[in-house]
User: Fold this.
Amino acid sequence: MMDFFASIFGPETEPMMKVYWGVALFASVVFVIQMIMTFVGFDADATTDTDFDADGFHIFTIKGLISFLLGFGWTGVLLRQNIENPIILGAVAVAVGVAFLFLILFIMRQVMKLSVDNSFKLEQSVGLVGSVYLRIPSARKACGKLQLSVNGTIHELEALTDGHELPTGSRAKVMSVIDDHTVLVEQA
Assistant:
């Protein structure tokens, strides 16, 4: 192992190769640590976002920086034998680093699309028809119960009506939301 480090950081190694190797090794170690922390459940980017973002996704984060450094460092190391001009090699390494950055951004966007907010909001029930579970007395005398399917989930709602009494088992359409727990219905 010491021979390996001596060969890449020794005096005969050109300075830019030392930079590429240093960046590649550092970024690889941090990347592995990030992956372990992610799988354990600790998100290393929780408080490191900056104000510059693209479509709500922060570009300049620790993960983005490490992605850039991985692409930059390993491109410099792997293409040094093929690209003799150090300026062209540097430009290619930066381009690959930027590509890695946007690849991570793209992957994060796709992952975020998988998260779905399935929390129920009473406003979603307006216009839907359900079944009266407990009779709903006429003229808002008392609350009854309405069972309703919203997004594939059955919800039991407190319900009032302005019209005639709605007996158990009848169909009722939600007309509006009265408060945080109650809806106004009419016979469907």
User: Anything to note?
Assistant: Helices lie at 2-9, 15-40, 62-79, 86-114. Residues 86-114 form the longest helix (29 residues). Residues 134 and 145 are 5 Å apart (CA to CA). Residues 44-56 have pLDDT under 50 and may be disordered.
